Task: structure prediction
Amino acid sequence: MLMGVLSVYPSHRLAAQDTSAVDRGVRIGLTYRPGVRPGMVVLPGRGPALDSVRAIVARDLDYSDRFELITLPSGDSLRVTAIAPAAPPRSPAAAPARSGGAAAAAGLNYPLYQALGADFAVTLTAAPADSQVVTVHDVTGGGVRREFRVHLPALTDPGFRMAVHRLSDHVIEAALGVGGIAATRVLFVMDGKVYSIDQDGADQRMVSSSDHAAMSPSWAADGRRFAYMEFWEGHGRLFVQDVASGKRTAVATTGQALDFTPAFSPDAKTLAFSRATEEGTDVYTVNIKDGCCLQRLTVGRFYDNLSPTYSPDGQRIAFVSTRAGLPQIYAMAADGTDQQLLAPFDYGATGSSNAPEWSPDGQSVAFHRDVGGTLQVFVLDVRTRAVRQLTSVGRNEDPTWAPDSRHMAFVSDRSGYRQLWIIDLETGRIRPLLQKSGARLPAWSPRLPETASSTP
Amino acid sequence: MKRLPLLLLGGLAVAAVAACGGKKPETTPAPAGPNADSIAAAEKARADSAAAAQAEADRRAKEEAERRQRIADSLAAMGHTTEAVKTLLATMIHFDFDKANIRPGDAAILDQKVSILQANSGLRIRLSGHCDERGSDEYNLALGNRRATAAKQYLVSHGIDAGRIETVSYGEERPIDPGHNEEAWAKNRRDETEILAGGDALKQP
Result:
């Protein structure tokens, strides 16, 4: 059954390319082909807060770009029609008796939803003890794929939305066997402050706590900490901040130079960063676990080396170097040896390339490159060294990977002013993340660890 | 009033000579004692001396006042000089896009800074490098660092002690013109000079 579903799902990477200036803002590229993805319908639930849950889940599934979301013409009436043949007529008084997902499952009219184009259906049911039952139906197979009981926090609880996002990721995992990106956040810089925003554009909040101008937030792979840089009297100081407590620690051995662009090693023991001195800018590492052992990985002298980013296995570091004149993307072993060109370029023709970020699956490095006086996002295939241009509308810069390695957030002025956008590399679909001018330097989190209040 | 006791004193002296006049002839001239003329002369000298003292005091006071005025004037002048030198020192130098080399025309501005630093040995400065918004945000920190360092190297190569000059970079974070055109970008690609110490009283080079 699963194979049947997957066969209609494109398993190869489509060459999503932002080539269409006409479709500015919504869906771009020639490769967006509706209908090839499995259809998904999220049915209205009855119970406290389930309308909100349904809305968030449906949007998360849509934003995963892995399903065709099927909208019911007028939710309730269709639902009643759909369920009527198999279930006895219900009255509000009889509703509590329908507790548990099994009853809902038994009542689902699979042929009808199949006729509507659905391969999967999700039902949400209120269950005893303030819990909810989520059922993922395999519509084509005519049965329940998975059913799980969750304990969502109250609607007013600050953890509510993230708990629902986690639920969405469980649904994606149950339907397709892949991890979602619903329970993630994006850090970014605006007016010198670091902010956090959920991947669906909700819950924007400031996370930096000082009056010093900040830059370059970046996540640890466990999603529990992030690092960023602040200007202190012309020096750049690095800080590591704990997500849960909001407490931050100054990184040892920095503070007397201009240190910037911190990047965690995958084991989060080491922080690589750029340090600008009178000798130029070079890549250094420091052991943040023990607060010691500053190491210099590059020795530029007459050129600069900066913006390190680790491969997910921790073996390599991609970085920017001006050794050939203009900045281009290079890579080295994590100890600084074996430095070589990573993203090919034509000397004298290719523009400056900057802001590399290694994808979580290790296969690609995203960066931006000057094309005709403006910046565009590029993706390098690490194995083949093939470079392809992803954007072409307006100025596009500072790409950051989602944990699924197929979505990317970046800064674009395609709408007239610089704001944050999200692109899906496989479908080419693009959507605004934050419609506020001045947001920049985004950093997409890994899948965020669960907290006690929202464990499903 | 002052003269009365002196006249009385003179009268008594004359009377004393006359009282013992039996032994000595009257013709014996009286010893040169104070007479009206000498008293007047002494008195005049005394008065003159007092006036002179008064004049001297007045002159001194005047001189003191003049000296104070001169100091005040020169202090003010020094303030003007300090301000002028500060303005001169703050003159920015500018750069071409994505470049950190000193433009030939800007060398004269750096030469001025060399002279000012030479004339004011206690002066310490900070050079900050800045970029326009066109480049990459993070790369611009490295570029701004190159720009600040380039100016420092120029000053050091002209004899200024490296320890007197600090360099920092703000990348594109502190534009002086918020515009999005070449005019604004050209202004923003710059080095600024800031006084760290020794800038209270600056000498004209």
